[in-house]
Amino acid sequence: MSLFLALMCFINLFHKSIYHKFTLYSYLKMSIAKYIEKYKRLGIDQTINKELFNHIAVVHHSTVLEGSTLTDVETAVLITEDLTPKGKPLSYSLMVKDHYDALVFALEEAKRKSPVTVEFVRELNARVLKSTASVYETVFGQVDASKGELRKGNVSAGATYFPNFSKVPSLLENLIQDIDTRMSGKLTLEDKVNLSFDAHFSFVSINPFYDGNGRTSRLLMNYIQAYYNLPLAIVNEKSKADYIQALLDTRANQDITIFRSFMHMEYAGMLKKEIAEFEKMQDLNRSNEWGMGL
């Protein structure tokens, strides 16, 4: 093997090493802090209608991840004008409306500094499924998903098998206790961001409900971010395959930094895009003002 090929092999192995993984993770953490600081300094979240359209984006991407075919424009029109798109299943419109209502509820609770409880996440799930929920008949009794009732049966998704339903109540209680303990401490910006991502991963891995677990887990993440006055993170619809793979790899390797790294990349990409669009708008406004002054 030539020296060049040997060197290339070494570099390739280095880039796949644990050291590189944590170096990349450290870089992503620094990027998030930088983007959040600039996002707030520019006052992007204070821009007229920015909050509404950010919420619409959260709902759009989250529902598309779950199968909705509504475009971003159709989602915006549905939420702001209550007009459903023609030729598309009503269930998708109901999914969007319910998700938006659940998001508003979560953000109001965050503003009130309400604690995360089992009742809170059950209410989130009930709101997510308000118009599309099913009633499940099991040997252990009926489960009405519209009431945020925990599953009474075992479930799987592809090759992934979620915890036995008998363990769900205690696993959920443990997760809530962990979130409460961490939120009661003095957290750095990094701690707050990681807590929101960790809660997202842990909740969807318990999969406590028959339906709506993904949407509820992302709303729980957004609740924690809103609690700490952070921009709301979005899992972009185009990142669905990478999102699922990050969840699978994190479980397989029992390494939360895998999911954190994925979410940091999503978060940094979203913030970078919003900052660039805001600065472009500012430059255009300054250009127009200069032109009018001639």
Question: What is the structure about, briefly put?
Answer:
The chain has 294 residues and is mainly alpha-helical. It contains eleven helices and four strands; from the N terminus they run H-H-H-H-H-H-E-E-E-E-H-H-H-H-H. The chain has one domain: Fido-like domain (Fic-like fold), CATH 1.10.3290.
Please describe what this structure looks like.
The protein has 294 residues and is mainly α. It has eleven helices and four strands. A hairpin with a 2-residue loop joins strand 3 (156-157) and strand 4. Helix 5 (90-111) packs parallel to helix 9, helix 6 crosses helix 9 (213-227) and helix 7 (168-183) runs antiparallel to helix 8. Residues 1-22 have low confidence and may be disordered. ATP binds at residues 211-218. It comes from Arcticibacter pallidicorallinus. This is Fic/DOC family protein. One of its GO terms (molecular function) is ATP binding.
Number of strands: 4
| CATH architectural category | Orthogonal Bundle
Percent of sequence in beta strands: under 5%
Report, as a whole number of angstroms, the end-to-end distance: 68 Å
Task: Please give the radius of gyration in angstroms.
Answer: 21 Å
Strand order of the largest sheet: 1-2
Helix content class: 55-70%
Total separate domains: 1
Report the top-level CATH class. Answer: Mainly Alpha
Name the average pLDDT: 89
What would you call the structural class?
A: mainly alpha
Main sheet: strands, sense, barrel: 2 strands, antiparallel
GO molecular function, one term: ATP binding
Pfam family, one: Fic
Keywords: ATP-binding, Nucleotide-binding
Protein name: Fic/DOC family protein
